[in-house]
């Protein structure tokens, strides 16, 4: 008998949709999600409520007619962010969260925060109004080894901020280490963590062993296998503090396949197929819905979707495009390294 899996419509609590031709090309691949937190690291970044509203309109225009996706906008926190603008944009329903990028941590993060004390008034206003801070949790100190940057960030930046601003709601974005898992578990209801699809299925060998593979390079960079296993355990545990944020981050292949290539894995087209396989492999299919469709909504104090999606397990691997085209450029779709039997039925 054909195996099928029906879930409440999933949400993606961390997504890069870009702008212009790239937005037009990638938005349809996330259109079947219910809600998605949209990252603000455009060039220039989305720093005001007015810019977030305009970006939201461009996203809606790029989605296919009738697409379920409801973009949840974020503001990019800078040293100069005005607390009043953040609160006004939140109260007007324009933004769902604020994104903290330490300056220089990743793609288009040059305008990020250079000193946490400068943004303390913004964080205090956010705590007062229940506005979530989505955190890219890596230190940027060149003296810190890239594989240690998440753990050092937790100890030297995140934990101190949370102590100085009690009640601040924090999502640790795209955690990649057992340290991240442990710290997320140490918090109360105001702390959660997203986990990407790719960090559940690759470790750092995928990038570096037997040749360098730029399509597996993202930030935070994938860590050793023991960390991947900790992430898998967290994601498949059903615990409410862990939920899906794909961090699907498309770049043209010409920007990835470079002497200095961009960070990002483009997982939007096959994320649900990969996750269903991973959860099945861990005998956790009954907890997939919590990870993709329930836990994030609960953290963001939203109702879960009333819609359903259906995944069908095929007898032969389900095809997906190796690349998509964006503005005349190829964008490589993430290859999990195993066949995908779970096929997402059209929405
Ligand atoms: O791999 C990544 N790509 N990590 C990030 O934090 C940013 C993202 C991007 O925008 O390309
Ligand atoms: Zn991201």
Topology at a glance:
Blueprint: E1 3-8, E2 12-15, H1 20-30, E3 35-38, H2 49-62, E4 70-76, H3 83-91, E5 95-100, H4 120-129, E6 132-135, H5 149-164, E7 170-172, H6 178-186, E8 191-195, H7 197-201, H8 205-208, H9 225-236, E9 242-244, H10 253-256, H11 271-281, H12 288-299, E10 308-313, E11 323-326, E12 329-332, E13 342-344
Parallel strand pairs: 2-3, 3-4, 4-5, 5-6, 6-7, 7-8, 8-9
Antiparallel strand pairs: 1-10, 10-13, 11-12
Helix pairs in contact: 3-4
The structure holds (4S)-2,6-dioxohexahydropyrimidine-4-carboxylic acid and zinc ion.
How would you describe this protein?
The protein has 347 residues and is α/β, with parallel strands linked by helices. The chain has a single domain, classed as TIM Barrel, CATH 3.20.20. 34% of the residues lie in helices and 17% in strands. The chain has twelve helices and 13 strands. It has helices at 20-30, 49-62, 83-91, 120-129, 149-164, 178-186, 197-201, 205-208, 225-236, 253-256, 271-281, 288-299, and strands at 3-8, 12-15, 35-38, 70-76, 95-100, 132-135, 170-172, 191-195, 242-244, 308-313, 323-326, 329-332, 342-344. It has an eight-stranded parallel beta sheet. It has a three-stranded antiparallel beta sheet with strand order 1-10-13, with helices on one face. A two-stranded antiparallel ribbon has the order 11-12. Strand 7 (170-172), helix 6 (178-186) and strand 8 form a beta-alpha-beta unit. Helix 3 (83-91) packs parallel to helix 4. It is globular and about 55 Å long. The mean pLDDT is 96. (4S)-2,6-dioxohexahydropyrimidine-4-carboxylic acid (DOR) binds next to loops.
